[in-house]
Amino acid sequence: MKINQSNIKKSKKFLDKNDCIGIPTETVYGLAGNAYSNKAVSKIFKLKKRPKNNPLIVHYANLKMLKRDCEINRNFIKLFKKFCPGPITFVLKLKKNSKISKYVSNNKDTLAVRFPKHVIVRKLLNFLDYPLAAPSANISNNISPVTKKDVEDEFGKKIKFILDGGRSSIGLESTIVSLVNKPKILRLGGIEVKKINNVLKKSLKLNLKNKKLNSPGQNKLHYSPGIPIKLNVKKPNQHDAYILIKKRGISNNSYYYLSKNKNLKEAAKNLYKVLRMIKNKNYTSISVEKIPNKGIGEAINDRLLKASKFKS
Ligand code: TXA
Ligand code: MG
């Protein structure tokens, strides 16, 4: 994607004034603000209607900047070398003298950090002298945005600028791995757990429902299009929107395909797009065909399961 330098400069201008802007990443779009500024970080929480005890991810340009704020360790170095920049978030110990706003982590002594791969946001991060706190750019519990238009749908005129980076190539959030004590996975996402296990040469525990951490796994309404979702459905009700993993010969307006040929990466990329499309029509419920639970399919099923907890 071509980089428009004037948009990068414009983004910096807003961010320097402690305003929040929409930013593209390879996973989903983020709602970004200066992570060192209490004012900017408070604005993010307010705009998203996010509970103050649900911490944000901070996005860094490079290791040098990260080291000002966090303690790093050997597991981090191994994973960083293999996967960064990319769709993986690390929870690390925050340094006592770090400049990170105390609102980012709700006064906790840990910080979730990420090095996004998207060329446009990398360009922006390299242009700033502070890291960016950025949760997904949706109102809390809504579907995460994967285009500039989706961010507009979420926030309308409440945010002044969205940096356009085209459609997010992965389409699902980053995998979160905590490296504070014994390494563990806190959220499934863009990098398969198997690949992380291979690098660390052990099988990490999945801690997807940690009550104390208030991670996305706890929130039952997360990723919800606001109508009931039924999973593993072979025959949908007549008026349901029906999400299928593979394109079929049958032509039906209420059938939505995640991929042409059961490709799970393609399905992940299309998931939020399809859910948002269905949400904007007048369906009262959604049925989903069984999605293979392997590779990134595990993250797809994780999101669908959470969305299916919706009760009207
Ligand atoms: O792909 C992504 O990670 C996207 C893009 C924009 O980078 N961001 C994203 O942020 O998904 P968000 O805020 O929607 O989800 C991050 C989750 C939070 O819900 C929170 O529970 C968890 O990360 N988290 C943040 N800081 C944490 C910490 N110190 N310890 C444990 N979990 C943390
Ligand atoms: Mg989110």
Overview of this protein structure:
This protein has helices spanning 5-16, 38-48, 63-69, 74-83, 119-127, 148-155, 193-200, 264-279, 297-307, and strands at residues 21-23, 30-34, 57-59, 70-71, 88-94, 110-114, 132-133, 175-178, 184-187, 205-206, 229-230, 241-244, 255-257, 286-288. By secondary structure, it is α/β, with parallel strands linked by helices. The chain is globular and about 60 Å long. Strands 1, 2, 3, 4, 5, 6, 7, 8, 9 and 10 form a 10-stranded mixed β-sheet that branches. The longest helix has 16 residues, at 264-279. Bound molecules: threonylcarbamoyladenylate (TXA) and magnesium ion. Magnesium ion (MG) binds at residues 135-136, 144.
Strand content: 15-25%
Given helix and strand content, the structural type is: alpha/beta
Largest sheet: 10 strands, mixed
Q: Measure the end-to-end span.
A: 41 Å
Give the integer mean of the pLDDT values: 94
Radius of gyration: 19 Å
Distinct ligand kinds: threonylcarbamoyladenylate, magnesium ion
What are the secondary-structure elements, in order, as H or E?
A: HEEHEHEHEEHEHEEHEEEEHEH
Q: How many separate helices? A: 9
Overall outline? globular
Helix percent reads 25-40%
Low-confidence sequence ranges = 213-218
Total strands: the figure is 14
SSE topology sketch:
Layout: H1 5-16, E1 21-23, E2 30-34, H2 38-48, E3 57-59, H3 63-69, E4 70-71, H4 74-83, E5 88-94, E6 110-114, H5 119-127, E7 132-133, H6 148-155, E8 175-178, E9 184-187, H7 193-200, E10 205-206, E11 229-230, E12 241-244, E13 255-257, H8 264-279, E14 286-288, H9 297-307
Parallel strand pairs: 3-6, 5-8, 9-10, 11-14, 12-13, 12-14
Antiparallel strand pairs: 1-2, 2-7, 3-7, 4-5, 5-6, 8-9
This protein binds threonylcarbamoyladenylate and magnesium ion.
